[in-house]
Amino acid sequence: xxxxxxxxxxxxxxxxxxxxxxxxxxxxxxxxxxxxxxxxxxxxxxxxxxxxxxxxxxxxxxxxxxxxxxxxxxxxxxxxxxxxxxxxxxxxxxxxxxxxxxxxxxxxxxxxxxxxxxxxxxxxxxxxxxxxxxxxxxxxxxxxxxxxxxxxxxxxxxxxxxxxxxxxxxxxxxxxxxxxxxxxxxxxxxxxxxxxxxxxxxxxxxxxxxxxxxxxxxxxxxxxxxxxxxxxxxxxxxxxxxxxxxxxxxxxxxxxxxxxxxxxxxxxxxxxxxxxxxxxxxxxxxxxxxxxxxxxxxxxxxxxxxxxxxxxxxxxxxxxxxxxxxx
Length: 327
What we know:
Blueprint: E1 5-15, E2 29-40, E3 45-49, H1 56-63, E4 71-76, E5 79-80, H2 86-95, E6 96-99, H3 103-106, H4 113-123, H5 128-141, H6 147-151, H7 160-172, E7 178-182, H8 190-207, E8 210-215, H9 218-224, E9 227-232, E10 235-241, H10 242-247, H11 252-260, H12 266-271, E11 312-315, E12 318-320
Parallel strand pairs: 3-8, 3-9, 6-7, 7-8
Antiparallel strand pairs: 1-2, 1-4, 4-5, 9-10, 10-12, 11-12
Helix pairs in contact: 4-5, 7-8
């Protein structure tokens, strides 16, 4: 059975402009995404995890065709999205949707919730009373009741959790196949966060949705995702199922961010041994030779400094880009 989505050797580079290095045009590049490869099956949830600046949001934007890649390809239902015709692109826009991180900025403050949600139906030939009825159904589906009250409210009249429910409603309105969620719960209180994650799980079951979940929070990943791709400086460092990754991480970077994740048990938290990483994250402009994690890795050896490790499958479904993976 073919994959719903295939991302192959995706790269995005930005030329460095407006600096004293500009006379060396083409020599200095920001390597935002640098060889990302993964696939996604229908009904699955894949988490993209990593520090700020690792390239996870840029990867999501390329999949949405909000920005064009420098090289590489993205196949959706077997078709390269960068070679789609106008009519095919129109269908793609209906089937692949985005949930924004900043819901307040993504909602028009001059439009009511009803007007915002109705817009997609009017654009796609669902007009008049039918469009309003669809919006009221959507509001009920995401838990915003009574629906007629929320229909006439403006974004500033809603709480953060309510605005996020509106953002989710907007994403699922046309019954898409794939939804990319960019840090959708990072700005919410922990109790509200749990409610939104529960809602997204339920919607996935009800509408047969497939998710790509961009986040830096491993606790969120464990509760929602089936597989996880850990990114570091534009590349996938490790890719595995959630259970396999949490039980047997193979990359030193994955192990460190797992140990840095807070746990609610004080006794277990104090007894955990942290792996101290030295130095700072290298610049995406001047990447280190060899493995880009080598300047911070406590297990670095000579071969790590010579060539960038490839993402290889060490166990069934468990991929890692490391010359000396953890036992």
